[in-house]
């Protein structure tokens, strides 16, 4: 009986994970259509941007034909989508080189920046959220709530500006621009990216800490927690052994949302600090109307978000038997 129940539970979990995966693929297809349509609505194109305002209509038309911009929109979408599926996102209209090569030089920088930020933000957010929940209604809880709420309310560009004024202008500890290169040592690299990491961490820690606190408090009012307290279980053990396994679903979802922000929402931070990442590359693609590059960058951000949310769903399903039963 136990083996049959276990098999049934695993089967239900696999079916639910399969549905989540199929839903993610459908979402990615719809997003690809939306990205393509929005990209086509932008005024001007790469041919006009490359030739400038002084170019004649004949010159612009000839370059548009050479770039393939005069083909019907459905044909261009089908060609681009088939290329994305096969791993070839096309040719950059401005750099005149494969989009994959342009992205490959920037993507590792964004991934490394996100990983370093997550390495700092996740433990800090969990500690703040759990500590605030364990002191619910107390002075520590109120102080942390006010602090995190203030951090969420402050926009990234203001955090970056304050950080530059404090650490670069006044204290002169850190550079105001993220100067990074392959020849740098780890110490030089960390000093160069300290400002972007600090700016990103402020928002990520605040969001994740507040959602962690809410998830833990929601479980603290359950009967099984009261029973554990009556049995004399230490508060730390109650949280780690009883509350966290049941609160893992919303906490992991909060982490996934925050980490997806590190990839897709870092546009402002990368632009302010001139960090050579994928987000700043997408901004340059918008400016130059390099549609294949813009569309590929947007799809990468969307795919990263969906993958993180899928991982969060799978983790929640495997960690919580009640979700499998549903």
Q: What is the string of SSEs from the N terminus onward?
A: HHHHHHHHHHHHHHH
What ranges have pLDDT less than 50 throughout 5 or more consecutive residues?
Answer: none
Alpha-carbon distance between the two ends = 20 Å
Q: For this structure, what is the CATH class of the domain at 107-276?
A: Mainly Alpha
Helix count, per DSSP? 15
Share of helix, binned: over 70%
As for the CATH topology of the domain at 107-276, it is MetI-like fold
Number of strands: 0
- Mean pLDDT, rounded to whole units? 79
Secondary structural class: mainly alpha
In terms of DSSP E residues, the strand content is under 5%
User: What is the second-level CATH architecture of the domain at 107-276?
Assistant: Orthogonal Bundle
Principal-axis shape: globular
Largest sheet: none
At the fourth CATH level, what is the homologous superfamily of the domain at 107-276? MetI-like
Cα-based radius of gyration, to the nearest Å: 24 Å
Q: Which oligomeric form is depicted?
A: single chain
Organism: Sphingobium cyanobacteriorum
Keywords: Cell membrane, Membrane, Transmembrane, Transmembrane helix, Transport
Transmembrane segments: 21-42, 111-131, 143-169, 189-209, 251-273, 293-319
InterPro entries: BPD_transp_1_N (IPR045621), MetI-like (IPR000515), MetI-like_sf (IPR035906)
């Amino acid at each position: 009986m136990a083996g049959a129940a276990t098999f049934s539970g695993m089967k239900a979990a696999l079916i639910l994970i399969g549905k989540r995966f199929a839903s993610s693929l459908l979402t990615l297809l719809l997003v690809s259509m939306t990205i393509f349509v929005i990209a086509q609505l932008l005024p001007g194109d790469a041919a006009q941007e490359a030739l400038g305002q002084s170019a004649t209509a004949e010159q612009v038309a000839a370059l548009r034909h050479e770039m393939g911009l005069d083909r019907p929109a459905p044909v261009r979408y089908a060609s681009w989508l088939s290329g994305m599926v096969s791993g070839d996102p096309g040719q950059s209209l401005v750099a005149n080189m494969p989009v994959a090569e342009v992205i490959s030089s920037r993507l590792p920088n964004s991934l490394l920046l996100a990983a370093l930020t997550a390495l700092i933000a996740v433990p800090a957010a969990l500690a703040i959220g759990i500590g605030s929940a364990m002191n619910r209604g107390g002075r520590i809880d109120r102080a942390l709530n006010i602090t995190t709420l203030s951090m969420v309310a402050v926009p990234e560009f203001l955090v970056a500006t304050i950080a530059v004024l404090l650490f670069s202008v006044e204290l002169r500890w850190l550079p105001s621009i993220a100067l990074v290169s392959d020849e740098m040592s780890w110490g030089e690299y960390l000093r160069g990216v300290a400002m972007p990491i600090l700016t990103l961490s402020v928002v990520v820690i605040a969001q994740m800490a507040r959602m962690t606190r809410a998830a833990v408090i929601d479980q603290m009012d359950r009967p099984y927690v009261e029973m554990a307290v009556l049995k004399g279980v230490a508060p730390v053990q109650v949280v780690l052994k009883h509350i966290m396994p049941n609160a893992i679903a919303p906490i992991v979802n909060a982490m996934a949302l925050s980490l997806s922000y590190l990839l897709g929402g870092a546009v402002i931070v990368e632009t302010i600090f001139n960090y050579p990442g994928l987000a700043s590359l997408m901004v340059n693609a918008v400016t130059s109307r390099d549609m294949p590059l813009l569309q590929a960058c947007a799809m990468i951000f969307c795919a990263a978000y969906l993958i993180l949310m899928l991982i969060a769903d799978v983790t929640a399903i495997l960690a919580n038997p009640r979700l499998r039963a549903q």
